[in-house]
Amino acid sequence: MSALKKSLVAAKQAVEQKDFKTGRDNCTQALAIDPNSYNALILLGYCQNELRDRGAAIEAYRKAVDLNPRAAMAYQGLLTVYEADRKVSEYIDTTLILADIYRELDDINRCTSLMNKTQSFVAEKGSKKDKIKMLKAILPGTPVYEYLEGRLPHPASTLQKLTEMLETEERQTIEGSVSKQRNKLGVNINTMTRKIKREVYEASELEKYYDLLLNWSDDDQTRRQVEGKLLTFLYNKLLVLQPKDRQQTKLQLYKMATEMVVLHSPIELAWSITLDWNDCRDLSELDENLLREYINNFPDTGLSKVIQAFLKSDISPFHRATEAETDGDDGESDVESVTVMEEHWSDEELLEKFTEGYEMNPNSPLANRILGMYYLHIGEYENAVELSISGLKVLQKVVKDFSRNLKKCRDAISVTLGTAYIYYQAPRHFDEALHIFDEILSDMPDHSQALIGKALIFEEQCQVTEARDILQSILDKDPKNVVALSEISWCKILLGQHEEGRAGLEKCLSLLTRDDPSSENMKAKIWWRIGKSMWDERSDLRSDRSRSYNAFVTSLKFNPNYAPSYTSLGVFFADIAGETERAGKCFHKAFELDATEAEAAKRLTETFANERDWELVEVIASRFAEAEKKRSVPGKEASWPYRVLGVAYLQSQDLVKAIQSFQTALRSDSSDTHSWTGLGEAYAASGRYIAASKSFVRASTVDPDNWYAQFLLGMVHRQIQDFDEAKTLFNSVLSERPSEFVVLSHLCEALVASAQHNVARHYYGDAVSDAVEALEVALTISKTRTDSFNMWKNAGDAIAIFFQVKAMADKFPTETVTSLILSAHPEFNAEMQRIDEIDGVSLKNIGKLDNIDILQTVTFYHCLAYKMGLLETYQTMKSRAVGWFNIACAELRIFQKMGMDEHYESAAIECFKNAIKLEPKNAQFWNAYGITTARQYPLISQHAFIRSLIIDNKQVVAWANLGTMYLIKGDYELANLAFTRAQSADPDYMISWLGQGLIAKAVGEEAEANDLFEHSFTICSGADVSKLAHLLYAASAFAQMTKSSTRALTPINVELAVFTLEKVLLLDPEYVPAAQYKALVLERKGDYSRAIATLTDACSRLEQLYEDSESPEELREFTNAKAQLARLYLAHKDFSESLEASLFVVDLSEGDDNLRLSRLSAEITAGLAYYYSNQSDEALKMFGMAGSDSNDDLDISVMLAQVLYSLGGENREKASDLLFKNIEQDSQHLKSITLLGTIGLVDGSEDIVDAIEAELTDFDIDQQLNSVSDRSIEILMSALEGSKSKDHKPTVRPWLQSAILKPSDPKIWNHIDRKTALETAMLEKSVKARELSDEFVAAGSFANSIKAIFISPGNEKAWGNLASLTEEFSKRPPPAVKGGNALEEDIIKGVGEMKVGA
């Protein structure tokens, strides 16, 4: 036996014994002998499989297959390995090869068994792709199916499973791909989805397998389902295909859909495609049976509902034929048709069905077309436009998605759109409609609807002749076209051919035999046109009710909702019959039916405006404007409704809308002067005065004769306080219309406002001039009208200017005011008579004014003017309460400003009560009542203020007044709370800050009080409220001057204080506190002559007041002022006058402890005056009296010691003893110490020098730090120490000690090192410019002099030093070095360093 056979036998035996490793080895040996041994490869593959080495097994079997491809054994082995390894796809491929081998061997049983086993294995272990592969392998047309036909499953079943699997697979593929791509940035989801679907559908085999299934299936139901799936597949595929690739699929889809419809398929998609893609010119071309079958098969779809309503509506071209059939004699009409005709739907039901169907399927071209036509038919033109536009968009989408061009359908919808544009918002869309009609007529020149539409547009555009020619061309071809005949007849009427036109309209009535709504509307329109023709033809016959009136009424019989007929009837009733109420009802009905009825809207707004019912005016104008806006071309709307609307909004204070309305009106008509005026009024009311003035100027430019615009422009200038321009404009109007009451009234008001404004700005002369002119204007008004409340109020306000500015009361126009008052003819009033009895101000007392002071005359007329204002208008309830309030304010003003005469106060209280009775919820009245009662009845005053705040808790004035009352009563905590609330309400209200300043002053917080007084002065305005603020500011400024004499006495501080007090004195020349403070400030300034003049007048006033009243308060004020005047005379070195005044005070105050301080001041002044008059004994006597009155005050003792020392002799010892006595009482009394030390130095007394040096050495360091800025301690110590040295020069040690305590004081360093002093001055912020300039001067050098002048140009020392240095340099010989002389170099150096110094 050969070695090969031995190895194969051994291998076979080993396999039988299941020793697969040995078998594998034997097979390997055999293959080593013969690599092409088929059996060895088969056995090797088997052994490797059993040893679970699948790869080696497959490799062995594949080599065997390569050796013998048509042998079955190797394939069977492969199947075994693939089955064990679950490689289903390879298993299927191997099965098909093996089945083909069995087919060749004609072994049908083994082939069948193999296929059955493979199907089971795939069903159990295979994936979806494997199952699809298996199903494809047993389809008809494959070798397996041809051999085993009848032994395999039926092709229909196989195809059913296959298509379902493919559907699922494709759906999952699309969803998976879309999901992966969705989250990528920059990806358009729709485009990406279409691309993915296109790729899937183009590669899909579903279409092929659907066709096979249709061919093999015997079940009709299955075939219907498969047809639907195939149709849907083609429909979806067509949606995503590129336009260039759609043609075949599109034709296939439409052909299949129509064939399915012919076969009565239950697939709704086939029917909708057939109906929607049917490109017919007219709906009558549709197959009625097809439509009815569709609605029977699919009654619940959107398109079906639309078609149902269509077949039952008036626009259907089919139902009348059906009606004729049902009326036939044979009686064999279709039952279904009879049912249709017997069932009747109302218009509401039709519209509901149309709407419901359209909402269900808005993307149906047919549904959009039908519903658009129906809306056009019933006159819903807006909806017709919307549906037509929507339909055209749907058609565009059909073209885009399916490349199906439905041109005839598009033309039909376009005609509907163009026709709707004629009536919807006409004439806004005429251009669009003409474009549509021209486009249609370019293809179909005889299209009657397009021609009629074009004619209607020409008719509306007043191109009547062109419209008539077009309509005539239609009638030439169709003489019974009612629409064309009606419109051509109307054209003739518009051209003045009334009889011929009416004849044509009557012929139209004979042709309209139907009773449908469309025909009824047409008849109503024709009858209105007949009536309008009669109305326009003969104006003299308009009152004949058998003509126009009868035609209008007949029109409404056919259509009760025809708006033009109501408008025409309203005009008839208003202009002819004179029945205003019926006319208003007709206009209202017309406007209610059609908001674009311009005549009705205009008449209604005029009626409501005359009745001042602005709310209804706004409603009518806004509705008409909105409707007009919709129907007009943008920018070409009628301007009058917007102007009316602006006026209505202006009346209701809706200023934003008013401005917008006037602007809209002006965009339509920029020459509308009334709109410009209204716009200016709206701007002015909203506070936009610049824009308002521009509007009024434009109105005047457009219409130079428009005096009202000039008048309003003057009012705007008055509002922005440009009173001069306002007065000029008012006078300009009055030059043309001198008796125009409203202009005179506002001129008077502007003059008063100007006067008050000038008082607030302290322009008192201008204020008085304005007040005089205002009174003259008021007199002019009174010549025509004395019942003007505002005129009397303005007169009273103008008179008030004269006792506000008392210094100019002599300019009061007494004759003018007397004439004004006497022009009034008031009726008797008991309440006013009671007030007259209290205050004595009445017409009968005018004769007593000749012998009284001018200010009393002013106050008399001031109050009387307000009384005349109330009495002349007493019948007007609106002004009665304000009238009492004005009188009360005048009484209170007189009481406060002209002396505390309680009669005026009582009268004010009574008047406020009368005002509050009439208007109990007026917060201003309660606030004023609280002010009036504060002095006598504080509890009532508090109640009044609280009541005012309950009504309006944001009143800053009431809070401030309540705080003032609490302040007067000493309740600082409540006062502070009230003032804080006032500041929260208005931070710029001066009184609240002033009140808090007074509180701070009362509790001892001087610094805070001064800050608050300064802030109050900064924000104050107006004469009434600023007098106290000015005075307190001046007082605080003076207090600061007394605390830091050198630094506070700057020109700005002093002059500002003086200026402030002078303004107060101009307001009230007799205001003594202002005069006293002015004298004090001038005294500090050194202007003694002005101070003496000011205080002399004040003393005269105080002396007069004391003589009149002899009150202790007046005496105290008088003695204080007189003592101050004595001191001023002393400073002015007028010793005799000083002695006279001071001795007068001493005598007057003798024995009165309340006047001790005044007497003490006078005694000191007299002592000094005696001393400077060389009357030493009298001086000593006066100082002695001062010492007694001051309880031996140490400062007065120092003054006495100075006088004693100056007398010489023994008096000097007395002076020293007096000073030692002072030091014993107070060892820290600096004046006594320094004076005694100075005496010791002058007298050379070492004992005194040693004693004072010891005292100063032990001097309290705190007092030394707080000592005055004259550095008297350091000067004295330096001199005392220097007196003990050989050269008797002052020492530096005290200055060094002070430098340690105050290192930032340059004055100390001046005595130590001038360079350090200069550097310190430059670093110290508190050093003023003049002081720093002085330091540079003290430092010497030419450069420092230039810096000193640069810092303070007014420093005389700096200029003098510069002059001396220049003179010195000029005397030097020229320098030998090149580059200029030393003077030039020093100048250059100085200028170069000037920036550093600055």
TrEMBL record:
This is Superkiller protein 3. TPR repeats lie at residues 38-71, 639-672, 673-706, 707-740, 956-989. It holds the Pfam family TPR_19. Keywords: Repeat, TPR repeat. Gene3D superfamilies: Tetratricopeptide repeat domain. The keyword Repeat applies.
